[in-house]
Amino acid sequence: MTGRHLGLAVLVAAIWGVNFVAIDAGLSHYPPLLFTALRFLVAAVPAVFLVGRPGVPWRHVLAGGLVLGALQFGLLFEGMKAGMPAGLSSLVQQGQAVFTAAFAAALLRERIGARRLLGLAVAVAGMAVAALDQASRGGAAPLGAFALVVGAAAAFGLSNIITRRAAPPDALRWMVWVSVVPPLPLAALSLLTEGPRADVRALTTFSPSAVGSLLYVAWGATLVGFGLWGYLLQRHDASVVAPFSLLVPVFGMSSAWLLRGEPLTRLSGAAAALVISGIAIASITPPRLTRPRLTRSWLTRPQFGRSALSPAPRADHPEQARGCVREHDRAGRGADGPARTPLPPRAADAAASPVQPS
User: Which residues lie closer than 8 Å to 94 by C-beta, 6 or more apart?
Assistant: First the structure.
């Protein structure tokens, strides 16, 4: 990965980490379900008219929109509105790796190796420590809010399975079309549960911070974030790009501390270390070092018409020496031309290669 692409990967992680602070700021003005509906509405329009068709079956778009958009972010926004801190929310959302593995094993019959099981167990331990940190905060951060954010992480894991089955050709186009689905059902739920009075008041009252938060979560985190992420995935293997998502809670917790004054406790630090290291163990595969093996074909490769294992001509036998010279001349002589000196091995490989170095 080049330095430019490395910087883009870190930038995406920073955008997604700060996104939790923007959500927290927007929830001080908008009801959570209405805020979620507006987020996807602004992300979808007018982008949906510019990106082309999704390139996947419509049933996948519908399923992705309902699970990723309505369910995941609806639960996340509700949990943060109920008192879940932004920084801790960014950490707990990384638990989606645990739920993704569980759903993949149950629905796709994928096998989970010992290394992944160990990493996922460490990440679950980190989430348990995060729950203890949540409980230690008392009424400011009730466990019910924590449960809602954990439910959002589970919906995130299920949406990953839907995305994997859909196999969209472009991440940005997929996200734009998925954003078309949630606004109407979320707006209907907001009217039923949050009430038309609260929705009208939020829509008719102007707040610069609320509008800025809405534009950030819709355009910054959704369009710019997923656009850059898809750009990187098109140029690098997923195993190279995906580990950078582990930086999201780092930026989320640090930005919440800097911008929202959220305290960083020892429990939250321990939870972050466990969750990030556990996901790293489960998702990052170390490179395998292979030792070159000598094959029989290599050992018996002919050299100037004789086997590499055949004995060299002895100097005290003139007939063997003269025979070796004749074999060397025949090997180096063309069909109609004089004898040629064979190319060195590296030069011969380069000449035979279909791709020449620039």
Answer: 123, 153, 245, 246, 248, 249, 275, 276, 279
